[in-house]
Protein backbone atom coordinates (compact mmCIF):
# COMPACT_ATOMS: atom_id res chain seq x y z
CA UNK A 1 0.00 0.00 0.00
CA UNK A 2 1.23 3.48 -0.89
CA UNK A 3 2.48 5.58 2.01
CA UNK A 4 0.57 8.87 2.17
CA UNK A 5 0.65 11.79 4.58
CA UNK A 6 -3.08 12.56 4.43
CA UNK A 7 -6.00 10.09 4.64
CA UNK A 8 -7.89 11.77 1.77
CA UNK A 9 -7.94 14.87 -0.40
CA UNK A 10 -10.45 16.96 1.56
CA UNK A 11 -8.59 16.40 4.83
CA UNK A 12 -5.41 17.49 3.03
CA UNK A 13 -6.99 20.77 1.88
CA UNK A 14 -8.47 21.51 5.31
CA UNK A 15 -5.17 20.69 7.05
CA UNK A 16 -3.10 22.91 4.75
CA UNK A 17 -5.77 25.62 4.55
CA UNK A 18 -5.81 26.07 8.32
CA UNK A 19 -2.00 26.04 8.43
CA UNK A 20 -1.73 28.62 5.63
CA UNK A 21 -4.36 30.82 7.24
CA UNK A 22 -2.74 30.84 10.68
CA UNK A 23 0.71 31.47 9.21
CA UNK A 24 -0.75 34.28 7.11
CA UNK A 25 -2.16 35.94 10.24
CA UNK A 26 1.24 35.60 11.91
CA UNK A 27 2.98 37.16 8.89
CA UNK A 28 0.50 40.05 8.80
CA UNK A 29 0.83 40.89 12.50
CA UNK A 30 4.61 40.48 12.34
CA UNK A 31 4.91 42.82 9.36
CA UNK A 32 2.52 45.43 10.77
CA UNK A 33 3.51 45.34 14.44
CA UNK A 34 6.87 43.52 14.50
CA UNK A 35 5.28 41.08 16.93
CA UNK A 36 3.67 37.65 16.72
CA UNK A 37 1.11 37.19 19.54
CA UNK A 38 1.90 34.34 21.93
CA UNK A 39 -1.74 33.27 21.87
CA UNK A 40 -1.44 32.69 18.12
CA UNK A 41 1.73 30.60 18.25
CA UNK A 42 0.46 28.55 21.20
CA UNK A 43 -2.83 27.94 19.38
CA UNK A 44 -0.90 26.87 16.27
CA UNK A 45 1.20 24.46 18.31
CA UNK A 46 -1.81 22.87 20.01
CA UNK A 47 -3.76 22.64 16.75
CA UNK A 48 -0.75 21.06 15.05
CA UNK A 49 -0.63 18.34 17.70
CA UNK A 50 -4.38 17.75 17.42
CA UNK A 51 -4.34 17.75 13.60
CA UNK A 52 -1.57 15.18 13.46
CA UNK A 53 -3.22 13.02 16.12
CA UNK A 54 -6.42 12.98 14.05
CA UNK A 55 -4.48 12.40 10.83
CA UNK A 56 -2.48 9.54 12.34
CA UNK A 57 -5.54 7.94 13.92
CA UNK A 58 -7.39 8.12 10.62
CA UNK A 59 -4.47 6.55 8.78
CA UNK A 60 -4.25 3.81 11.40
CA UNK A 61 -7.98 3.09 11.12
CA UNK A 62 -7.56 2.67 7.36
CA UNK A 63 -4.65 0.29 7.83
CA UNK A 64 -2.22 2.55 5.97
CA UNK A 65 1.52 2.76 6.69
CA UNK A 66 2.33 5.22 9.47
CA UNK A 67 5.38 7.39 10.14
CA UNK A 68 7.06 5.08 12.67
CA UNK A 69 5.16 1.84 12.14
CA UNK A 70 4.26 0.12 8.90
CA UNK A 71 0.66 -0.21 9.99
CA UNK A 72 -1.41 0.00 13.13
CA UNK A 73 -4.69 0.64 14.90
CA UNK A 74 -6.46 3.93 15.57
CA UNK A 75 -4.66 4.43 18.89
CA UNK A 76 -1.30 3.49 17.43
CA UNK A 77 -1.97 5.95 14.62
CA UNK A 78 -2.75 8.71 17.12
CA UNK A 79 0.50 7.97 18.95
CA UNK A 80 2.34 7.97 15.62
CA UNK A 81 0.89 11.35 14.65
CA UNK A 82 1.78 12.88 18.00
CA UNK A 83 5.31 11.47 17.75
CA UNK A 84 5.79 13.02 14.31
CA UNK A 85 4.51 16.38 15.59
CA UNK A 86 6.62 16.40 18.75
CA UNK A 87 9.81 15.43 16.91
CA UNK A 88 9.22 18.18 14.33
CA UNK A 89 8.47 20.77 17.02
CA UNK A 90 11.52 19.81 19.07
CA UNK A 91 13.95 20.00 16.15
CA UNK A 92 12.41 23.28 15.01
CA UNK A 93 12.75 24.78 18.49
CA UNK A 94 16.39 23.71 18.86
CA UNK A 95 17.44 25.07 15.45
CA UNK A 96 15.55 28.35 15.84
CA UNK A 97 16.75 28.79 19.44
CA UNK A 98 20.34 28.61 18.17
CA UNK A 99 19.53 31.30 15.59
CA UNK A 100 17.88 33.40 18.29
CA UNK A 101 20.98 33.16 20.49
CA UNK A 102 23.03 34.30 17.48
CA UNK A 103 20.69 37.29 17.12
CA UNK A 104 19.44 36.39 13.64
CA UNK A 105 15.75 36.00 14.55
CA UNK A 106 13.28 37.05 17.20
CA UNK A 107 11.56 35.10 19.93
CA UNK A 108 8.31 35.14 17.99
CA UNK A 109 10.06 33.48 15.06
CA UNK A 110 11.27 30.68 17.34
CA UNK A 111 7.75 30.02 18.60
CA UNK A 112 6.22 30.26 15.13
CA UNK A 113 8.67 27.79 13.60
CA UNK A 114 8.19 25.44 16.56
CA UNK A 115 4.47 25.43 15.79
CA UNK A 116 5.20 24.82 12.09
CA UNK A 117 7.34 21.84 13.10
CA UNK A 118 4.38 20.43 15.03
CA UNK A 119 2.25 20.61 11.88
CA UNK A 120 4.77 19.24 9.39
CA UNK A 121 7.04 16.92 11.32
CA UNK A 122 10.79 16.69 10.83
CA UNK A 123 11.00 16.28 7.03
CA UNK A 124 8.37 18.89 6.30
CA UNK A 125 9.91 21.43 8.64
CA UNK A 126 13.40 21.01 7.15
CA UNK A 127 12.08 21.44 3.60
CA UNK A 128 10.23 24.64 4.52
CA UNK A 129 13.09 25.95 6.67
CA UNK A 130 15.61 25.62 3.85
CA UNK A 131 13.18 27.15 1.35
CA UNK A 132 12.64 30.09 3.71
CA UNK A 133 16.39 30.68 3.90
CA UNK A 134 16.55 30.73 0.08
CA UNK A 135 13.69 33.24 -0.14
CA UNK A 136 15.44 35.48 2.40
CA UNK A 137 18.72 35.34 0.46
CA UNK A 138 16.95 36.17 -2.81
CA UNK A 139 15.18 39.12 -1.19
CA UNK A 140 18.44 40.46 0.29
CA UNK A 141 20.15 40.06 -3.10
CA UNK A 142 17.51 42.07 -4.95
CA UNK A 143 17.43 44.66 -2.17
CA UNK A 144 21.19 45.14 -2.52
CA UNK A 145 21.11 45.18 -6.33
CA UNK A 146 18.21 47.63 -6.31
CA UNK A 147 20.17 50.05 -4.14
CA UNK A 148 23.13 50.13 -6.53
CA UNK A 149 26.27 48.03 -6.74
CA UNK A 150 28.83 50.56 -5.58
CA UNK A 151 30.70 49.48 -2.42
CA UNK A 152 29.38 52.48 -0.51
CA UNK A 153 25.74 51.76 -1.37
CA UNK A 154 26.07 48.04 -0.70
CA UNK A 155 27.56 48.79 2.72
CA UNK A 156 24.78 51.29 3.49
CA UNK A 157 22.05 48.86 2.40
CA UNK A 158 23.47 46.00 4.45
CA UNK A 159 23.74 48.30 7.47
CA UNK A 160 20.08 49.31 7.05
CA UNK A 161 18.99 45.68 6.72
CA UNK A 162 20.94 44.78 9.85
CA UNK A 163 19.40 47.70 11.74
CA UNK A 164 15.92 46.65 10.60
CA UNK A 165 16.58 43.07 11.71
CA UNK A 166 17.80 44.15 15.13
CA UNK A 167 14.83 46.48 15.59
CA UNK A 168 12.31 43.77 14.69
CA UNK A 169 14.04 41.20 16.90
CA UNK A 170 13.62 43.66 19.77
CA UNK A 171 9.93 44.06 18.94
CA UNK A 172 10.22 47.58 17.56
CA UNK A 173 7.93 48.45 14.65
CA UNK A 174 9.56 49.87 11.54
CA UNK A 175 8.22 53.07 9.96
CA UNK A 176 5.18 52.37 7.79
CA UNK A 177 6.81 54.31 4.95
CA UNK A 178 9.86 52.03 4.91
CA UNK A 179 9.88 50.30 1.48
CA UNK A 180 10.18 46.53 1.15
CA UNK A 181 9.90 45.80 4.84
CA UNK A 182 10.57 42.11 5.44
CA UNK A 183 10.17 39.89 8.46
CA UNK A 184 11.07 36.23 8.89
CA UNK A 185 7.42 35.20 8.88
CA UNK A 186 6.68 36.63 5.41
CA UNK A 187 9.27 34.54 3.51
CA UNK A 188 8.16 31.63 5.71
CA UNK A 189 4.60 32.03 4.43
CA UNK A 190 5.79 32.21 0.82
CA UNK A 191 7.96 29.12 1.24
CA UNK A 192 5.28 27.21 3.15
CA UNK A 193 2.65 27.66 0.44
CA UNK A 194 5.03 27.00 -2.46
CA UNK A 195 6.71 23.93 -0.97
CA UNK A 196 3.60 22.21 0.39
CA UNK A 197 1.46 22.78 -2.71
CA UNK A 198 4.26 21.32 -4.82
CA UNK A 199 5.17 18.38 -2.59
CA UNK A 200 1.55 17.38 -1.99
CA UNK A 201 0.31 18.19 -5.50
CA UNK A 202 -0.77 14.56 -6.00
CA UNK A 203 -2.47 14.12 -2.64
CA UNK A 204 -4.26 17.45 -3.21
CA UNK A 205 -5.20 16.26 -6.71
CA UNK A 206 -3.78 19.43 -8.23
CA UNK A 207 -2.17 17.19 -10.85
CA UNK A 208 -2.48 13.52 -11.71
CA UNK A 209 0.77 11.93 -12.93
CA UNK A 210 0.62 10.15 -16.26
CA UNK A 211 0.47 6.40 -15.94
CA UNK A 212 -0.94 6.43 -12.40
CA UNK A 213 -4.62 5.72 -11.80
CA UNK A 214 -6.57 8.63 -10.23
CA UNK A 215 -7.84 6.12 -7.67
CA UNK A 216 -4.30 5.37 -6.52
CA UNK A 217 -3.45 7.40 -3.37
CA UNK A 218 -0.56 9.75 -4.04
CA UNK A 219 1.98 11.05 -1.58
CA UNK A 220 4.29 13.88 -0.65
CA UNK A 221 7.91 13.56 0.49
CA UNK A 222 7.13 10.37 2.41
CA UNK A 223 7.46 8.22 -0.72
CA UNK A 224 8.13 10.81 -3.40
CA UNK A 225 10.68 8.63 -5.20
CA UNK A 226 8.18 5.81 -5.66
CA UNK A 227 5.77 8.07 -7.56
CA UNK A 228 8.56 9.58 -9.64
CA UNK A 229 9.59 6.10 -10.76
CA UNK A 230 6.02 5.34 -11.85
CA UNK A 231 5.75 8.58 -13.80
CA UNK A 232 9.16 8.05 -15.38
From TrEMBL:
<feature type="domain" description="Prepilin type IV endopeptidase peptidase">
    <location>
        <begin position="18"/>
        <end position="139"/>
    </location>
</feature>
<keyword id="KW-0472">Membrane</keyword>
<feature type="transmembrane region" description="Helical">
    <location>
        <begin position="112"/>
        <end position="142"/>
    </location>
</feature>
<dbReference type="InterPro" id="IPR000045">
    <property type="entry name" value="Prepilin_IV_endopep_pep"/>
</dbReference>
<keyword id="KW-1133">Transmembrane helix</keyword>
<dbReference type="GO" id="GO:0016020">
    <property type="term" value="C:membrane"/>
</dbReference>
<keyword id="KW-0812">Transmembrane</keyword>
<feature type="transmembrane region" description="Helical">
    <location>
        <begin position="36"/>
        <end position="54"/>
    </location>
</feature>
<feature type="transmembrane region" description="Helical">
    <location>
        <begin position="12"/>
        <end position="29"/>
    </location>
</feature>
<feature type="transmembrane region" description="Helical">
    <location>
        <begin position="74"/>
        <end position="100"/>
    </location>
</feature>
<protein>
    <submittedName>
        <fullName>Prepilin peptidase</fullName>
    </submittedName>
</protein>
<dbReference type="Pfam" id="PF01478">
    <property type="entry name" value="Peptidase_A24"/>
</dbReference>
<dbReference type="GO" id="GO:0004190">
    <property type="term" value="F:aspartic-type endopeptidase activity"/>
</dbReference>
<feature type="transmembrane region" description="Helical">
    <location>
        <begin position="182"/>
        <end position="200"/>
    </location>
</feature>
Amino acid sequence: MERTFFPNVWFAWVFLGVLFGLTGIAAWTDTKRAKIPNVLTVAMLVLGLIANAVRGGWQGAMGRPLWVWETGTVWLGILDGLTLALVGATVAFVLMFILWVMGTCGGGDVKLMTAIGAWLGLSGFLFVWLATAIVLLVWVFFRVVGSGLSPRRIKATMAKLDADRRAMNEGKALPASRPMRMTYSLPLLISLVAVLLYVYRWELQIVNPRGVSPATPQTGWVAHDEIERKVG
